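Need a sequence for this fold. Nothing fancy.
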Protein backbone atom coordinates (compact mmCIF):
# COMPACT_ATOMS: atom_id res chain seq x y z
CA UNK A 1 0.00 0.00 0.00
CA UNK A 2 1.38 3.37 -1.00
CA UNK A 3 0.65 6.40 1.20
CA UNK A 4 0.76 10.15 0.79
CA UNK A 5 0.68 12.78 3.51
CA UNK A 6 -0.01 16.47 3.85
CA UNK A 7 3.34 18.19 4.38
CA UNK A 8 3.51 21.71 5.78
CA UNK A 9 6.73 23.69 5.28
CA UNK A 10 6.34 25.91 8.32
CA UNK A 11 10.05 26.67 8.47
CA UNK A 12 9.91 28.62 5.23
CA UNK A 13 6.33 29.76 5.15
CA UNK A 14 4.13 31.85 7.39
CA UNK A 15 0.68 30.25 7.30
CA UNK A 16 -2.46 31.88 8.63
CA UNK A 17 -5.03 29.12 8.85
CA UNK A 18 -8.30 30.27 7.37
CA UNK A 19 -11.38 29.88 9.55
CA UNK A 20 -13.66 29.33 6.59
CA UNK A 21 -13.18 28.42 2.92
CA UNK A 22 -12.99 31.13 0.26
CA UNK A 23 -15.01 28.95 -2.12
CA UNK A 24 -17.51 26.25 -1.22
CA UNK A 25 -19.06 24.08 -3.93
CA UNK A 26 -22.27 22.26 -3.16
CA UNK A 27 -24.58 20.88 -5.79
CA UNK A 28 -27.93 22.21 -4.65
CA UNK A 29 -28.16 25.01 -7.20
CA UNK A 30 -26.48 25.92 -10.49
CA UNK A 31 -23.54 27.85 -8.99
CA UNK A 32 -21.42 24.69 -9.11
CA UNK A 33 -21.34 25.17 -12.89
CA UNK A 34 -18.93 28.08 -12.35
CA UNK A 35 -16.32 25.53 -11.29
CA UNK A 36 -17.41 22.08 -12.53
CA UNK A 37 -17.50 20.89 -16.14
CA UNK A 38 -18.83 17.38 -16.81
CA UNK A 39 -17.39 15.55 -19.82
CA UNK A 40 -20.24 15.06 -22.25
CA UNK A 41 -18.17 13.37 -24.95
CA UNK A 42 -18.08 10.04 -23.07
CA UNK A 43 -20.86 7.91 -21.59
CA UNK A 44 -22.19 10.81 -19.48
CA UNK A 45 -21.80 8.78 -16.31
CA UNK A 46 -21.30 11.73 -13.97
CA UNK A 47 -24.61 13.16 -12.72
CA UNK A 48 -25.53 15.96 -10.34
CA UNK A 49 -28.56 15.07 -8.26
CA UNK A 50 -29.96 13.20 -5.28
CA UNK A 51 -28.26 9.82 -4.78
CA UNK A 52 -30.73 6.91 -4.81
CA UNK A 53 -28.60 3.81 -4.33
CA UNK A 54 -27.95 1.36 -1.50
CA UNK A 55 -24.61 2.70 -0.22
CA UNK A 56 -24.93 6.06 -1.90
CA UNK A 57 -28.29 6.99 -0.40
CA UNK A 58 -27.74 10.60 0.72
CA UNK A 59 -25.54 13.65 0.15
CA UNK A 60 -23.10 15.04 2.69
CA UNK A 61 -24.90 18.37 2.22
CA UNK A 62 -28.40 17.35 1.22
CA UNK A 63 -29.93 16.92 -1.18
CA UNK A 64 -27.50 16.79 -4.16
CA UNK A 65 -24.00 15.52 -4.95
CA UNK A 66 -21.94 14.75 -8.03
CA UNK A 67 -21.59 11.00 -8.57
CA UNK A 68 -21.33 8.22 -11.12
CA UNK A 69 -25.06 8.02 -11.91
CA UNK A 70 -27.72 8.81 -9.32
CA UNK A 71 -29.48 5.45 -9.74
CA UNK A 72 -27.49 2.92 -11.76
CA UNK A 73 -24.17 1.15 -11.19
CA UNK A 74 -21.17 2.45 -13.09
CA UNK A 75 -20.66 0.99 -16.58
CA UNK A 76 -17.84 -1.22 -17.85
CA UNK A 77 -14.94 0.00 -20.02
CA UNK A 78 -15.47 3.59 -18.98
CA UNK A 79 -13.25 6.63 -18.44
CA UNK A 80 -15.86 9.31 -17.75
CA UNK A 81 -14.70 12.44 -15.94
CA UNK A 82 -15.49 15.90 -14.68
CA UNK A 83 -13.14 18.87 -14.30
CA UNK A 84 -12.82 21.15 -11.29
CA UNK A 85 -11.37 24.48 -12.41
CA UNK A 86 -10.37 27.34 -10.10
CA UNK A 87 -9.37 30.44 -12.02
CA UNK A 88 -6.93 33.19 -11.01
CA UNK A 89 -6.61 32.06 -7.43
CA UNK A 90 -3.26 30.42 -7.00
CA UNK A 91 -0.45 32.97 -7.26
CA UNK A 92 -1.27 35.54 -4.60
CA UNK A 93 -0.45 34.10 -1.21
CA UNK A 94 1.26 31.46 0.87
CA UNK A 95 -0.81 28.34 1.23
CA UNK A 96 -3.69 26.72 -0.64
CA UNK A 97 -5.82 23.70 -0.04
CA UNK A 98 -8.69 21.96 -1.79
CA UNK A 99 -10.77 19.70 0.43
CA UNK A 100 -13.70 17.51 -0.51
CA UNK A 101 -15.63 14.51 0.81
CA UNK A 102 -16.13 11.22 -0.97
CA UNK A 103 -17.56 7.72 -0.82
CA UNK A 104 -16.48 4.95 -3.16
CA UNK A 105 -17.66 1.51 -4.20
CA UNK A 106 -15.43 -0.07 -6.85
CA UNK A 107 -14.40 -3.59 -7.73
CA UNK A 108 -11.31 -3.76 -5.55
CA UNK A 109 -7.98 -3.46 -7.40
CA UNK A 110 -9.81 -3.69 -10.73
CA UNK A 111 -11.75 -0.41 -11.06
CA UNK A 112 -11.31 2.95 -9.38
CA UNK A 113 -10.97 6.70 -9.54
CA UNK A 114 -7.99 8.93 -10.20
CA UNK A 115 -7.38 12.68 -10.04
CA UNK A 116 -5.34 14.32 -12.77
CA UNK A 117 -3.81 17.78 -12.95
CA UNK A 118 -3.30 19.81 -16.10
CA UNK A 119 0.40 20.55 -15.89
CA UNK A 120 2.95 22.91 -17.43
CA UNK A 121 3.12 21.02 -20.72
CA UNK A 122 -0.68 21.20 -21.11
CA UNK A 123 -1.11 17.46 -20.55
CA UNK A 124 -2.91 15.64 -17.74
CA UNK A 125 -1.02 13.67 -15.07
CA UNK A 126 -2.28 11.51 -12.22
CA UNK A 127 -1.50 13.45 -9.04
CA UNK A 128 -2.30 10.46 -6.82
CA UNK A 129 0.79 8.80 -8.25
CA UNK A 130 3.21 11.44 -7.01
CA UNK A 131 6.18 9.97 -8.90
CA UNK A 132 4.54 10.87 -12.22
CA UNK A 133 4.58 14.63 -11.65
CA UNK A 134 8.32 15.30 -11.81
CA UNK A 135 9.38 17.68 -14.55
CA UNK A 136 5.94 17.62 -16.16
CA UNK A 137 4.17 19.32 -13.28
CA UNK A 138 6.46 21.92 -11.80
CA UNK A 139 3.26 23.79 -11.03
CA UNK A 140 2.65 21.16 -8.35
CA UNK A 141 6.21 20.75 -7.10
CA UNK A 142 5.98 19.90 -3.40
CA UNK A 143 2.32 18.94 -3.68
CA UNK A 144 0.78 16.24 -1.48
CA UNK A 145 -2.58 14.61 -0.96
CA UNK A 146 -3.41 13.64 2.61
CA UNK A 147 -4.90 10.17 2.45
CA UNK A 148 -3.55 6.66 2.87
CA UNK A 149 -6.60 5.16 1.20
CA UNK A 150 -4.88 4.53 -2.13
CA UNK A 151 -3.84 1.44 -4.06
CA UNK A 152 -3.11 0.08 -7.53
CA UNK A 153 -5.91 -1.10 -9.78
CA UNK A 154 -4.82 -2.42 -13.14
CA UNK A 155 -2.11 -0.07 -14.39
CA UNK A 156 -3.52 2.86 -12.42
CA UNK A 157 -2.99 4.18 -8.91
CA UNK A 158 -5.81 5.82 -7.03
CA UNK A 159 -9.00 5.14 -5.10
CA UNK A 160 -10.34 1.59 -5.31
CA UNK A 161 -12.42 -0.80 -3.22
CA UNK A 162 -15.36 0.22 -1.03
CA UNK A 163 -15.67 2.88 1.65
CA UNK A 164 -19.28 3.55 2.60
CA UNK A 165 -18.44 6.33 5.09
CA UNK A 166 -17.62 9.89 4.12
CA UNK A 167 -13.85 10.43 3.84
CA UNK A 168 -12.38 13.93 3.71
CA UNK A 169 -9.61 14.33 1.14
CA UNK A 170 -7.15 17.22 1.42
CA UNK A 171 -5.15 18.41 -1.60
CA UNK A 172 -2.56 20.84 -0.33
CA UNK A 173 0.13 22.85 -2.11
CA UNK A 174 2.28 25.52 -0.57
CA UNK A 175 3.78 28.69 -2.00
CA UNK A 176 7.35 27.70 -1.27
CA UNK A 177 6.81 24.75 -3.57
CA UNK A 178 5.49 26.73 -6.55
CA UNK A 179 8.07 26.83 -9.30
CA UNK A 180 6.03 28.66 -11.90
CA UNK A 181 7.28 27.85 -15.39
CA UNK A 182 4.31 29.18 -17.33
CA UNK A 183 3.37 32.47 -15.69
CA UNK A 184 0.39 32.85 -18.02
CA UNK A 185 -1.12 29.75 -16.43
CA UNK A 186 -3.15 31.19 -13.54
CA UNK A 187 -5.64 28.36 -13.08
CA UNK A 188 -5.83 25.05 -11.26
CA UNK A 189 -7.56 22.29 -13.22
CA UNK A 190 -8.18 18.89 -11.65
CA UNK A 191 -9.87 16.06 -13.53
CA UNK A 192 -11.75 13.40 -11.54
CA UNK A 193 -11.86 10.26 -13.70
CA UNK A 194 -13.64 6.94 -13.30
CA UNK A 195 -11.75 3.97 -14.79
CA UNK A 196 -13.50 0.60 -15.17
CA UNK A 197 -12.60 -2.65 -16.90
CA UNK A 198 -14.82 -5.09 -18.83
CA UNK A 199 -16.16 -6.95 -15.77
CA UNK A 200 -19.58 -5.79 -14.56
CA UNK A 201 -19.96 -6.05 -10.77
CA UNK A 202 -22.98 -3.73 -10.40
CA UNK A 203 -21.21 -1.53 -7.87
CA UNK A 204 -22.01 2.10 -7.19
CA UNK A 205 -18.85 3.96 -8.14
CA UNK A 206 -17.72 7.33 -6.79
CA UNK A 207 -19.66 10.07 -4.98
CA UNK A 208 -18.24 13.53 -4.18
CA UNK A 209 -19.61 16.47 -2.19
CA UNK A 210 -18.64 19.52 -0.14
CA UNK A 211 -15.71 20.84 -2.23
CA UNK A 212 -13.89 23.71 -0.51
CA UNK A 213 -10.99 25.97 -1.45
CA UNK A 214 -8.87 27.58 1.28
CA UNK A 215 -6.43 30.47 0.82
CA UNK A 216 -4.31 30.57 3.97
CA UNK A 217 -2.85 34.01 3.38
CA UNK A 218 0.35 35.14 5.06
CA UNK A 219 3.68 35.79 3.44
CA UNK A 220 6.39 33.66 1.90
CA UNK A 221 9.58 35.40 2.85
CA UNK A 222 11.80 32.63 1.53
CA UNK A 223 10.04 31.50 -1.64
CA UNK A 224 12.74 32.71 -4.02
CA UNK A 225 15.51 31.37 -1.85
CA UNK A 226 13.77 28.00 -1.51
CA UNK A 227 13.13 27.73 -5.25
CA UNK A 228 16.77 28.52 -6.05
CA UNK A 229 18.11 25.97 -3.57
CA UNK A 230 19.70 22.95 -5.18
CA UNK A 231 17.63 19.76 -5.32
CA UNK A 232 19.78 17.19 -3.54
CA UNK A 233 20.11 13.47 -4.09
CA UNK A 234 19.35 11.25 -1.11
CA UNK A 235 19.50 7.48 -1.29
CA UNK A 236 18.00 5.04 -0.68
CA UNK A 237 14.66 6.79 -0.96
CA UNK A 238 12.27 5.50 0.35
CA UNK A 239 14.17 4.23 3.37
CA UNK A 240 13.64 2.03 6.39
CA UNK A 241 16.63 3.23 8.44
CA UNK A 242 19.70 5.01 7.03
CA UNK A 243 20.07 7.17 3.92
CA UNK A 244 22.92 9.19 2.47
CA UNK A 245 22.68 12.84 1.43
CA UNK A 246 24.95 13.92 -1.41
CA UNK A 247 26.41 17.35 -0.56
CA UNK A 248 29.38 17.17 -2.91
CA UNK A 249 28.30 20.30 -4.81
CA UNK A 250 27.74 22.31 -1.63
CA UNK A 251 30.64 21.51 0.71
CA UNK A 252 33.18 24.36 0.57
CA UNK A 253 34.94 23.98 3.89
CA UNK A 254 32.47 25.34 6.41
CA UNK A 255 30.05 23.04 8.20
CA UNK A 256 26.53 23.03 6.84
CA UNK A 257 23.37 22.81 8.92
CA UNK A 258 21.01 19.96 8.00
CA UNK A 259 17.43 20.29 9.22
CA UNK A 260 14.75 17.61 8.91
CA UNK A 261 11.09 18.51 9.47
CA UNK A 262 8.11 16.21 9.96
CA UNK A 263 4.53 16.34 8.69
CA UNK A 264 3.70 19.21 11.05
CA UNK A 265 6.68 21.28 9.97
CA UNK A 266 8.38 20.56 13.31
CA UNK A 267 12.13 20.13 13.26
CA UNK A 268 12.78 16.51 14.29
CA UNK A 269 16.50 16.37 13.64
CA UNK A 270 19.26 18.98 13.44
CA UNK A 271 22.88 18.25 12.60
CA UNK A 272 26.01 19.87 11.20
CA UNK A 273 28.25 18.30 8.61
CA UNK A 274 31.35 18.91 6.51
CA UNK A 275 31.08 15.53 4.76
CA UNK A 276 30.27 15.43 1.06
CA UNK A 277 28.30 12.23 1.66
CA UNK A 278 26.37 12.61 4.90
CA UNK A 279 24.66 9.70 6.65
CA UNK A 280 21.19 10.40 8.06
CA UNK A 281 19.35 7.98 10.33
CA UNK A 282 15.57 7.61 10.02
CA UNK A 283 15.40 4.35 11.97
CA UNK A 284 13.33 5.75 14.84
CA UNK A 285 11.17 8.06 12.73
CA UNK A 286 7.47 7.32 12.22
CA UNK A 287 6.49 6.40 8.67
CA UNK A 288 5.80 9.43 6.50
CA UNK A 289 7.33 12.10 4.29
CA UNK A 290 10.08 14.38 5.57
CA UNK A 291 11.57 17.59 4.23
CA UNK A 292 15.36 17.97 4.36
CA UNK A 293 16.85 21.46 4.14
CA UNK A 294 20.54 22.34 4.08
CA UNK A 295 21.67 25.77 5.25
CA UNK A 296 24.87 27.75 4.91
CA UNK A 297 24.59 30.09 7.88
CA UNK A 298 20.98 31.33 7.50
CA UNK A 299 20.58 30.74 3.78
CA UNK A 300 18.97 27.60 2.44
CA UNK A 301 21.17 26.15 -0.31
CA UNK A 302 19.85 22.60 -0.69
CA UNK A 303 16.61 20.67 -0.27
CA UNK A 304 15.24 17.19 -0.65
CA UNK A 305 12.32 15.01 0.44
CA UNK A 306 12.37 11.44 1.69
CA UNK A 307 9.76 8.80 2.42
CA UNK A 308 10.26 6.73 5.56
CA UNK A 309 8.54 3.31 5.51
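Here you go.
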Amino acid sequence: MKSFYLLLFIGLTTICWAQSPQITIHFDDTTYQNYITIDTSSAKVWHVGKPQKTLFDSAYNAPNVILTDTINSYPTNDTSSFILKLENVIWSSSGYEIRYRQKKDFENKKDGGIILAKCDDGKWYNILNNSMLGSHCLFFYGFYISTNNLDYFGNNFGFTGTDSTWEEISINFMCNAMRIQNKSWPDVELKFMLISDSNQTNQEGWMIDDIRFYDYGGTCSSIEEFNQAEALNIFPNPTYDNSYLDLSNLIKGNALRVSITNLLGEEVQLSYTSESLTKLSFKDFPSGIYQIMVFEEDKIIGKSKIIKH
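For context: Helices lie at 223-228.
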